[in-house]
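Can anyone check this?
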Amino acid sequence: MDKIKIFKALADETRYRLFVLLLHHEFNVNELVQVLNMGQSRISRHLKILTESGILGSRRNGSFVYYHAVINDENKSLIDYVRQGLENDPGLNQDLQRAEAIYAERKNRTARFFQEIAPDWDDLKHEILGSVDLNALIVREIASGEVAVDLGCGTGELARVLEERATKVIGIDSSPRMLDQARKRFASNGQNVELRLGELEHVPLGDETADTAVVSMTLHALSVPAVGIREAGRVLKKGGRLVVVDFDKHDNPEIRDRFGGPWMGLATAEVRQWLEDAGFNLQRTEQIAVKHGLCINMFVADKDPYTSR
């Protein structure tokens, strides 16, 4: 990191405010204009300086570019310092409150979608997957262990298969109706499966609880996918395995609308970077062709046994 560039980038009040916002959420220029009540050209100019300094990253989704703070071991001390200053700065906290309202609406749209689609979710997935047995591909990457966590478990279809590898399976989903479908699946036989209501951005599990974690066809539905990967890292034991499966980047808004969430798939390079930043060692990736000209990417990664996270 070029520390001089970073200090120069943050030595401006507007850029500092932008950096604080993007530490917490991922926003496009139009959303940042709403939060800060500034002109688009001014916001864009400051974002360019922050990006060139290396402390912001960006990614394209359809016609919009979304910006986020780069969070990794290299800038951890800087980020900790910035976060410590938030408590006594009412102006920054007002920015965050306005940002939270925009972020909450984005999340609410996704939540409403999954509540409505729950009874048809399995059929919708199978329509896209065709003959691909995605659950079998996931399970082959997982060694036997005590606790496996299915993050975004939906109707429990994968959790049922994870029982073959784990003494205990914990399924977590933010949709009560999805969990209702899962409970029906395990009503007669599911003593080793526990279902919990919770968000993947705030997983209701303690640190280093699980031997294995899976995030299958869920990451694209998170407002900030990198947060979901960091949370998976938090709940995994050192050396634990994470399997991430999701749509490859595509340009089909109809698929995005049918499967919920704000993102039209996730680029391989993006997910690789999020895994690295969260303290994972990527073991391998696989791309699987499915129907409608789409591809699904699978990432198999192990939590660094020496990481402090």
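Reply from J.R.: I decoded it. The chain has 13 helices and ten strands.
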